[in-house]
Design a protein that fits this description.
There is one protein chain. By secondary structure, this protein is mainly α. It has a single domain, classed as MetI-like fold, CATH 1.10.3720. It is 73% helix and 0% strand. It is built from twelve helices and no strands. Helix 4 runs antiparallel to helix 5 and helix 4 (84-119) runs antiparallel to helix 10. It is elongated, with a radius of gyration of 23 Å.
């Protein structure tokens, strides 16, 4: 038989989810950003069907180099004669993969460190705060460049470099929320009943900080995509993988911008701006929905 208490909890959670979904739909800018993101992610996933990777092989292309946009090539061709639209679609897969994976690493580290820094006291709290302050003070991009230079080149290295260096801001937000939550009476009652650190953090604190973490996640994905593009533009990415940053790197190396081949420079630039803008719109809408103090603003 189903526990009535658990069934009631699930019913409340479903009702709360429906309520949040309706509130999110009321933010037109966030809804537009979400729809565009779904379309972009779908195009990235369908890239192998829309344009097989073999058609981007420089030994098989039949088009000329740096051809202007036309009916045959909607975004023109690159200096190697490859279709820019195809390179853009395949590049979106790497850029989005790095954005999501690096954000996941950053959110896990930031959430754990933030909850620990807000929950524990004494020497443990002091040590955690010093670590967080170090990663806040030192520019994350500089640390990512150092890690990408030391480690072997590849998407995994870029994901680790971005994720390990961009979690401090999340940790500060989570710590502040943890301190607020642990000042509430039900936490004191749980401690008086003998609840341990693990139970308090996992059962009470984590569910309460999760909405803020989710809202911060969408904003961090955009920053991770920009960081990946920067690292690839600096030549620290995987040379065998297409990404929007590597497209800009090729455009710089071949002089596409100065030679007037604007379509090869503009396409990845617009793609980066559009995706980051969409994630920002979705993040702001989620923040307004999940944070009661921002509702109505």
């Amino acid at each position: 038989m189903t526990d009535p208490g658990r069934a009631a909890v699930r019913a409340r959670r479903r009702a709360r989810f429906v309520e949040l979904a309706r509130e999110f739909a009321g933010h037109r800018s966030g809804l537009i950003g979400a729809v565009l993101l779904v379309v972009i992610i779908a195009l990235a996933l369908l890239a192998p069907l829309l344009l097989p990777f073999d058609r981007l092989d420089v030994t098989k292309v039949t088009a000329g180099a740096n051809e202007a946009p036309s009916g045959g090539h909607w975004l023109g061709t690159d200096p190697s004669g490859r279709d820019v639209l195809g390179v853009l679609l395949w590049g979106s897969r790497a850029s989005l993969l790095v954005g999501f994976a690096a954000t996941a690493v950053s959110m896990v580290i930031g959430t754990v460190m933030g909850m620990a820094a807000g929950h524990f006291e004494g020497l443990t709290r002091s040590a955690l705060l010093r670590i967080i302050d170090f990663f806040l003070v030192v520019p994350s991009l500089i640390l990512a460049i150092v890690l990408s230079t030391v480690l072997a080149r590849g998407l995994t290295t870029i994901i680790l470099a971005i994720g390990v260096t961009s979690w401090a801001a999340t940790a500060r937000v989570v710590r502040a929320q943890t301190l607020t939550i642990e000042a509430r009476p039900y936490i004191e009652r749980a401690q008086a009943l003998g609840a341990g650190d693990g139970r308090i953090l996992g059962r009470h604190v984590f569910p309460a900080v999760l909405p803020i973490v989710l809202a911060n996640t969408t904003l961090t994905v955009g920053a991770a995509i920009i960081a990946e593009s920067t690292l690839s533009f600096l030549g620290l990415g995987d040379p065998s993988t297409f990404s929007w940053g590597s497209m800009l790197k090729i455009a710089l190396d071949t002089g596409a911008a100065t030679a007037g081949y604007w379509w090869f420079v503009l396409s990845p630039g617009v793609a980066i701006v559009l995706v980051v803008l969409c994630f920002t719109l979705v993040g702001r809408a989620l923040e307004a929905v999940l944070n009661p103090t921002l509702r109505g603003l």
